[in-house]
Design brief:
With 492 residues, the protein is α/β, with parallel strands linked by helices. 33% of the residues lie in helices and 17% in strands. A hairpin with a 4-residue loop joins strand 14 and strand 15. It is globular. The two termini are 16 Å apart. Bound molecules: NADP nicotinamide-adenine-dinucleotide phosphate.
């Protein structure tokens, strides 16, 4: 007999959604483990200045738990963290959570038909079901630059922001120009004496229609939830059109992509007069190959006298500064690393997972292809739901992924209940058929047909395949989750 019905690794929105679903299905003996000291996943870890959601907040919540109180169209990070706390309280999840607990790995015990989960410094725990909700962007990437360890000033990665370090009057460097840097740079620039931004790959940035949500609108949302649902539907539909037309159906609708690119070019042209600076800030890859972002104050920051955009590659870091390949050295006090996340070396999966006959998930994905049936289950891994799988990310709001996976869980567990069984495993055939379908669809997308070679996009795995996003509409993802053939699974 297992100690727990299920162990969920990760207390972010994905893990909490899965826990809510398991509770709805009647499981209450749950253990949610997280290596951090509190819940919220990415919204607990990330606290850098300027942090905000980069899609409209009305779409960034569980549909069954709308939040009428977002202060802005793009809510700041701490509000999302508070929302996560509210969800944990309302759905009585906290009593299942255990923090500061690093899960080392998990192994399927065929004889006992259960998962054995190893916990650093503790006793292993057993569970009938294992769910990993460890996030896509959860393993910080430290840049491998010569000399970085010898830097004697302050080093901060954006996932480990040091609130006690005062940037005022400092000479700082930011390495990286992804979505995080775009939020960070304008927020800290005015405090600094000098800021040098090291850009390796430019990012497409469009205008951000960000406004405070007036109190009367918030009141209306709280009083008549249907009004907020209508706004959510409108927001989701816009995101869906952007994703489906501009990225997934690039072959059929290249115009949609070009509209996106033109909007970004126009935004840049409006904000930057200097043609040389504009050239440097213009990406050389097709819009959509990597995640574009929104900002109204990113570009103008580079017009400030004390802010410099450096596009010459970094050669090395010395104890007091950064030297570029042309030999130029910039002395700095603080090195701010907005260098993102390592998805493909130390994630997928985030922990060692050994399935039937000792199949190692990480090795299997790397030696074969990255794959997961409906982005959630894997053959030879019974009773395992991998919530951050290849082809699982559907749409632009992560909550779409979470909720379609909750639907999949509902159908799967109801089927087991009806059969009076407790073990499931997806069949090799169903998995292969799904992989073929996804591979076929990705052929029409920007990832296959666009010029993505210079994008350095984390959407691509080490095999050069864009296996992160599910290349279908979110409508299709939800429909599949509610109707997948039950005999795609073997039950015991
Ligand atoms: P990212 O998009 O991966 O950007 C990392 C940046 O660091 C890139 O510009 C990268 O350059 C650069 N870099 C990495 N290693 C480097 C090195 N050794 N030398 C020089 N440059 C280096 O990471 P991110 O900005 O943290 O964003 C990741 C994702 O998080 C986003 O795509 C978005 O989905 C999400 N995000 C969401 C929000 C939000 O909703 N609020 C906010 C921020 C981020 P290359 O491109 O050349 O590799």
């Amino acid at each position: 007999m297992s100690e727990y019905d299920a162990v969920i690794v990760g207390a972010g929105f994905g893990g909490m959604g899965a826990a809510i679903q398991l509770k709805r299905l009647g499981f209450d003996n749950l253990l949610i483990l997280d290596r951090e000291s509190d819940l919220g996943g990415t919204w607990h870890v990330n606290r850098y200045p300027g942090l905000a959601v980069d899609i409209p907040s009305s779409t960034y919540s569980y549909s069954f738990e709308p939040n009428p109180y977002w202060s802005r169209l793009f809510a700041p990070g701490e509000e999302i963290k508070r929302y996560a706390e509210h969800v944990a309280d309302k759905y009585d999840l906290r009593r299942h959570m255990q923090f500061d607990t690093v899960v080392d790995g998990a192994r399927w015990d065929e004889e006992a038909q259960q998962w054995v989960v190893s916990v650093k410094g503790g006793k292993p725990v057993t569970a009938t079901y294992l769910l990993t909700a460890t996030g896509f962007l959860s393993q910080p990437k430290m840049p491998d630059i010569e000399g970085i360890d010898g830097f004697q000033g302050k080093v901060i990665h954006t996932t480990a922001w040091d609130d006690d370090y005062d940037l005022t009057g400092k000479r700082a460097a930011v390495i990286g120009t992804g979505a995080t840097a775009v939020q960070l740079i304008p927020t800290i620039a005015d405090r600094l004496a000098e800021l040098t931004v090291y850009q390796r790959t430019a990012i497409w940035v469009s205008a951000k229609p960000d406004y405070p949500v007036p109190t009367r609108v918030r009141k209306a949302f709280a009083k008549v939830p249907l009004t907020q649902r209508a706004v959510r539907l409108a927001g989701s539909s816009i995101l869906e059109v952007l994703m489906v037309a501009g990225v997934l159906h690039y072959k059929e609708l290249p115009i949609a992509n070009r509209i996106g690119e033109r909007a970004c070019r126009a935004h840049l042209a409006r904000q930057i007069r200097d043609p040389e600076l504009r050239r440097k800030l213009t990406p050389d890859y097709t819009f959509g190959c990597k995640r574009p972002t929104f900002s109204n104050d990113y570009y103008p920051t580079f017009t400030k006298e004390h802010v410099h955009l450096e596009t010459t590659p970094i050669a090395r870091i010395e104890k007091d500064g950064i030297v570029t390949s042309d030999g130029h050295k910039t002395e700095i006090d603080a090195l701010l690393l907005a260098t993102g996340f390592n998805l493909w070396d130390v994630n997928f999966p985030a922990i060692e997972i050994l399935g039937r006959d000792g199949r190692d998930l990480g090795k299997w994905w790397r030696e074969n292809r990255f794959q997961a049936y409906e982005g959630i289950t894997v053959p030879s891994f019974p009773n395992f739901l991998s919530l951050n799988s290849p082809y699982s990310y559907s749409g632009l709001s992560y909550f779409t992924t979470i909720e379609s996976q909750m639907k999949h869980m509902d159908r799967l567990f109801q089927a087991m209940k009806r059969r009076g069984v407790t073990t499931f495993e997806v069949s090799e055939e169903a998995n292969a058929e799904f992989l073929d379908r996804m591979t076929d669809k990705i052929g029409n997308s920007i990832f296959t047909l666009g010029q993505c070679a210079t994008a350095n996009s984390y959407y691509f795995n080490p095999h050069g395949e864009a296996t992160l996003l599910r290349p279908t509409t979110t409508v299709n993802a939800f429909r599949d989750a509610a109707t997948f053939p039950l005999d795609d699974y073997v039950y015991a």
